[in-house]
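Hi V.,

Quick status before I head out on leave. The structure for the redesign project is tokenized and pasted below; the design run finished overnight.
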């Protein structure tokens, strides 16, 4: 099992209560979004405006507002591809979830899944 159901549910609840959350996109994700988008520039920072749980396979996915009211394309990105402000009250929980999920996914990849 990748995610701890209780911890994940608590984190999702806390994140939803704190929306919108500021996040920074990792460079690789920015480049991918730029390739697949008609939006033009993709900023370094964005606002997480919605949260979804995609089960064990997908984990927590964040709906992003990257450009304000003219944005036409919805952007959904795995939480593992976002960086959050260390000063955020949720930072420790977010960081712990991200590290745990990445570790578990690497372990599964090493087993040939």
């Amino acid at each position: 099992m990748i995610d701890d159901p209780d911890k994940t549910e608590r984190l999702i609840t806390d994140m939803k209560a704190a929306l919108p959350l500021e996040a920074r996109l990792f460079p690789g994700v920015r480049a991918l979004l730029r390739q697949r988008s008609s939006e033009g520039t993709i900023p370094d920072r964005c606002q997480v405006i919605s949260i979804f749980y995609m089960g064990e396979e997908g984990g927590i996915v964040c709906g992003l507002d990257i450009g304000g009211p003219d944005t036409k394309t919805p952007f959904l990105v795995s939480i593992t591809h976002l960086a959050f402000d260390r000063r955020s009250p949720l930072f420790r929980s977010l960081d712990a979830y991200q590290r745990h999920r990445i570790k578990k996914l690497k372990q599964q990849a090493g087993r040939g899944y």
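Above is the designed sequence. Residues 5-110 form one domain.

G. will cover questions while I'm gone.

Best,
W.
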